[in-house]
Amino acid sequence: MTPPTHGMDSQSEVLYFFLSYARLAPLTEVSATPRVPRLLTAQSDTGSSDAILDPDVRKFFDDLDGEIARLTRRNTASGFYDRHIPFAVDPCDALSHALSRAQVFLSLHSPSYLRNSWPRRERNAFRIRMIDQGHDPDARMLPVLWTPIPSWTVRPADLRQYDQANALALDLPEYRENGLRALCVLRHYEDVYRQVLDRIAARIIQLVETTVVPQSQALDLDRLPEIATDDPSFILTVLTDALESDPLSPWHPYRGRQGVPIADYALRTAERFGFAPQVVDCEEFADRSARNPALALVDPRILRRGDGMERLCRFFQGLPVWASPLVIGDEDDATVDGLAAHAQEMLSSAPPVAPGPSPNRVVERVDGPRDLEQTLVSALTKTRQAYLRHGFYDCLPPLASRPRLSGGDSSSTCG
Amino acid sequence: MTIPSLAIGKAAALLQSVRRRISAPAVELAYHASLPVAIDPDLLHLVRVNFLPGLPYEAEARLLLSPLFEDLGDGLYEIRPELRNLLLTGLRDRFGWKRVRQIAILLEKYTDHVAVGHANPELEQAQRLTALGVLNPEAAERWLAAAATDAPSAPLGHPWFVAMRQHLASFSGQASATTLDNELRAAIDRLKRAHSSEKHSALRTVTALAALPGADASLAVNALSGDAHAPDRLIAQAIAVNMEATRPDADLGADAPAFFLSYARASDRRTESAPEIGTVDNPVERFYDDLCDHVRQLVGFRTGTLPGLVDLSMDAGFEWRSRLLYTLNNARVFVALLSPDYLDSPWCRTEWELFSRAHPERRAGAEPARHKAIVPVTWIPISQSPIPTAIQEVQLFTPDNRVAAEVRRDYLANGLYRQLVSGSPHYRTVVWHLARRISDLYHALEVSPDRALNPDQLRSAFVRKSP
Predict the structure, then answer these.
(1) Contacting A residues, span 289-348, partner chain B, CB-CB under 8 Å
(2) Which of B245, B303, B323 is closest, CB to CB, to A229?
(3) Which of A120, A122, A399, A410 would best serve as a mutation to test chain B binding (most B beta carbons within 10 A)?
């Protein structure tokens, strides 16, 4: 089936629904997929790699899209979600554009969905559009219970949508008890899943056939009123020439092939995947990495200059092991692999700054714009896991132990 | 009296622009820093340690380098003028007039402290007058009038007096009707009257004001939610989300694992010094991954957080004991994979005993937990007897009665291990229901710090139990 197009020439095609959901990177390592020469891989026109997309969401989307196509006899995709973000387009722009065209906002409610800020941006962008065009947004929003949510954890502002999500299939207790995700993936619930899927498809088609809301100017998701609920907890920085880092760095390694400067791209991607990120300068990065997962996007040019490699190593040597460099390479630059490997080797051989085992710091690399999102999400996930593994537990205050004057063995304490 | 709408709009835009750079507590520090005419890092440090000691030290530098301040050179920073009144209002609303007076006293003492050899008499006098304006407004007015009369002989020019009169007037405004709530009401009113081209700017003002510490955001929620079709309902929803997010008990997605998975290897020879690595039991790992995938969806963990812990994921190294101790103390659910080997494993018995001592309790306001926090799962059916009393006392996990009888029968007869390795279609259903049980308990239980284990208990337990 042909994916929906991004350009303005697609106005004549009705985009039946926009699928909004909480993006969760895979728990297991994304980059376990072996790297193969680019020439040997099929080049896709879409951005988000299947490796970082939730397979259950993908199955549900495909099932629903197919059902709507079958009922409406369309041969193009009727819905939009991350897999349809065109390559070389800023994902934020692509999502904003889809939200300016979509007829129905289909949201997969789960604890993560209600918690993360990015889905709320999407939801608010759609609401503003409906309101500006004189439509009742609630009538065009179709919340689905993706996973069960304890009612007493739902915030008042989300209660209405929570009730609507439950009301979708009040007569099907399996849906209310398990949520649609379980029905989608467990063969045991296949019949109930089909019933709910049919209802969603029918509801979307009915709404579109009743009224088509015209496309409107795209609302920039990144400029919507700030409603972040979490203080930043993932620190990002950009290391360019001379290791002078600017949080608003305009460094744009893939200009013309990918939408925005690397710092903006990383910030938005991290937020989409629920990391509560913040871009800071390198001094603040060094200060705050002791208490936060921290990832530095490194311009490979600094590794080629004089003592650049040594300076990079000195910079990281004083930082906790989870603070990691991600070298931003390019497809036509075959030297980046060697540079990243050399940096890895130097960082691993540097003497530890603290007693005790010194686990290796991982130096990841991006091979080019096509590889950027997947490798970035993988690096973000690994960095946070390394922080939780090596930092979080050891940074905790002692639990029930008390200070001792006798100076007994305290090597095993958490503090 | 309210702050002019243009100024409040600029202030809101500034606050909006720094929202990702500074946290709500750092905004409270900005409140405190808004009283002095200018501030240097030493004074800001004193303000923090005296009034907001819970803030990390780096908040000082982050705040001074944020767009809320202008760098005057010579280590001096000034709050952006368009923000000052709003922040002063926030200071008084959030912390009360007494706190304003306390900062004024600190400012006066600090000015005395650094005044010797001070090269900037205008600033020194301005700081003293600011403190006096708060502590004794009438005396400040009298001093200003007298000094103005003597101006030709004083090192203070006419612009200084104009500026200080405005500065003192802002304090008298502080004592009158200027409150965050009034500003919020005025902003809501402007939003309701705004044309569509002004709507986004007006929305930003309302959200920034409602998000300020000390503002009564419910004013905005109630005012904007009244009309079912009002465009402003969106912003009411956003504000309500912010309000709820600051609840002290809003702990969705905490970093502590939800469950600890205790299992026995076929030949369990783990010792206290180092858990085995590199000999992964694949079925356990596969089951653990499947369970984690479900639990993180159900609980809502942030990306990268492991929802459960098992020693499969513990590296060799000094920190494994810390991690085990932390997990036993903080995981709300203990999942035991029962098998004949499990009953024979001193290591597993110790884990069970340790977790029992740090038993979680039911959270206030939560629905009653139907089951205890220890969830024994039939991994391989146990036919031998006797089963240890501690295990007999805890109800074995079985999918509830709403699950098809054939699924339950298959699980009870064969156990999860055989379901997994034989490719039984019922395996995933059972794991899903187990994940739901863990999620229910996670939401209903909380760990009690009073019962936390200490490292000595952990060490002595393993020394005693190790073969």
Answers:
(1) 291, 293
(2) B245
(3) A399
**Do B375 and B262 meet the contact criterion of CB atoms below 8 Å apart?**
no
Q: Closest Cα of chain B to A333: distance in Å?
A: 31
CA distance B289 to chain A (A): 8
What are the average pLDDT values for consecutive 10-residue runs of chain A, which has 415 residues? 50 84 75 36 50 89 94 86 81 89 96 87 88 88 94 77 91 94 93 96 95 82 55 81 58 80 88 86 85 90 83 84 89 80 78 51 83 90 81 44 30 26
Residue found under tokens 């965050």: B180
Contact A148 B298 (CB under 8 A): yes
Percent of residues, chain B, with pLDDT higher than 70: 66
Flag whether residue A411 sits within 8 Å of chain B, measured between CB atoms: yes
Q: Which of B146-160, B324-338, B417-431 has the highest mean pLDDT?
A: B417-431
Phi and psi based region of residue B54 (left: phi greater than 0; alpha: psi -120 to 50; beta: remaining): alpha
- Given its phi and psi angles, is residue A42 left (phi above 0), alpha (psi -120 to 50 degrees) or beta? beta
Is the CB of B303 less than 8 angstroms away from the CB of A273? yes
Q: How far apart are the first and last CA of chain A?
A: 56
pLDDT band per the 50, 70, 90 thresholds, residue B129: confident
| Order of strands across the sheet that contains A79-80 | A79-80, A17-20, A104-109, A141-145
Chain A residues 78-117 with a CB less than 8 Å from chain B? 110-112, 114-115
pLDDT band at B425 (very low <50, low <70, confident <90, very high): confident
pLDDT recorded at residue B156: 62
Q: Which residues of B touch A278 (CB under 8 A)?
A: 20-21
Cβ of A147 within 8 Å of Cβ of B297? The answer is yes
- 10 Å Cβ neighbour count for B303? 26
Bridge partners, residue A364, by sequence: A326
More confidently predicted of B337 and B248: B337
Q: Determine whether the interchain pair B242/A229 forms a contact, defined as Cβ–Cβ distance below 8 Å.
A: yes
Residue B20's pLDDT is 55
Token pair recorded at residue B188? 């809501």
The two tokens of residue A83 are 């897999």
Instruction: Tell me what ipTM this predicted complex has.
Output: 0.79
Q: What is the pLDDT of residue A44?
A: 46
Rounded distance, CA B308 to CA B291, Å?
8
Q: Cβ A229–B241 below 8 Å, yes or no?
A: yes
Instruction: Give the C-alpha separation, B338 to B398, whole Å.
Output: 13
Q: Which residues of B touch A114 (CB under 8 A)?
A: 252, 300
Mean of the per-residue pLDDT values of chain B: 74
Beta carbon pairs, A and B, within 8 Å: 203
Q: Write A91-95 long-range contacts (CB < 8 A, 24+).
A: A91/A47, A91/A48, A91/A259, A91/A268, A91/A269, A91/A272, A91/A373, A92/A220, A92/A221, A92/A222, A92/A259, A92/A260, A92/A268, A93/A218, A93/A220, A93/A259, A94/A6, A94/A47, A95/A122, A95/A221
Question: Is residue A412 less than 8 Å (CB to CB) from chain B?
Answer: yes
Residues 201-230 on A with a CB inside 8 Å of B are: 223, 225-230
CA–CA separation, B108 and B96 (whole Å): 19
Tokens 């699924």 -> residue: B407
End-to-end CA distance of chain B: 78
Residue B276: half-sphere exposure toward Cβ, Cα within 13 Å: 12
pLDDT higher than 50, residue B221? yes
With an 8 Å Cβ cutoff, are A227 and B24 in contact? no
Answer whether A173 touches B (CB < 8 Å).
yes
Q: Quick one: pLDDT at residue B37?
A: 87
Residue A300 near residue A368, CB atoms below 8 Å: no
